[in-house]
Amino acid sequence: LKEWKELLVNYTATNETDYKVLVVDDAAKVTSSNLSTYFGTAEEPLADLVLDRAVLTLPKALNASSFHAFAERTSNSTPEGKWPSYVLDSEGLSRLASRVGHEYVDAVHMFALISHGTPFFLYGDEIGMVDAEKGKVAAMQWTAEEPPATFTLPRHPEYQTVNVDAQEGNTTSHLDVLKRAASLRDKPAVRLGNTVLAVLEDVFVMMRVRKGSPGYLLVVNFSNQESTVDLGRASSHVPESGHIEVASVGSGRHHEAKVKLAGFHLSPHEAVLIQFVPIF
């Protein structure tokens, strides 16, 4: 790894090009406990980005507390001053939608996209593809049409309804949720802001906040029951109201609708991203 770092540094200096990023993907060996060794030290820096597969350890029976613990663990595993990553899926394992269910796919995507770090997706996760009947590897489903007879990769079982053609331009689709959440990544609070995590009964809350910029609240109801929470309990930065930016499939909420944050009502399994003006 040290030799690769020296090679990239020398190449950049010799050719006067933009800095070359060293990305490490060592799936069999990288863990939360040894992640820092791949980054090196201040005196001898190594990798710029290490692919962290902690998301793959999400328990099947998700709840607000287990997701909070996961969020804290992934946040704390990356050394201070280094850039985190979130690998959401990996070949050889069940797909994200098969692991967490369609009801939480949007919540995990929103979390990764507004977190401090770089998310990595496996093709098809953006539309909620599940495992193929014959195993993990399946064709990307662009349309509901049958593939040619010579096509060898299996289709996932929901290909006629879960495909890009059906979700493109559909404002109530997994693809639209991902695109809307991804559009927030250049916002100052998401790029440079602080992160606050909280659990309010069965509701997980993550806040990205930066003074002088709009803040963002991710609110996820991990219960199969409706829930009403006072989001002001999560942080003193939370004001009385905010506006809906993104809502999970089936939520029924309208983009930019104004909502009160003191008694915020959530449907079962609902995930919502809210923009607000933080209190400082």
Automatic annotation (TrEMBL):
GO MF entries: aromatic amino acid transmembrane transporter activity; L-alanine transmembrane transporter activity; L-leucine transmembrane transporter activity
GO biological process per UniProt: carbohydrate metabolic process; L-alanine import across plasma membrane; L-leucine import across plasma membrane; phenylalanine transport
Spell out the GO cellular component terms annotated for this protein, sorted alphabetically and separated by semicolons.
apical plasma membrane; basolateral plasma membrane
Question: InterPro entries attached here?
Answer: GH (IPR017853), GH13_cat_dom (IPR006047), Glyco_hydro_b (IPR013780), SLC3A2 (IPR042280)
Q: Which residues form the Glycosyl hydrolase family 13 catalytic domain?
A: 64-190
From what superkingdom does this record's organism come?
Eukaryota
Quote the PANTHER family the UniProt record gives: 4F2 CELL-SURFACE ANTIGEN HEAVY CHAIN
- Its recorded name reads Neutral and basic amino acid transport protein rbat
Say which species the protein is native to: Ornithodoros brasiliensis (Mouro tick)
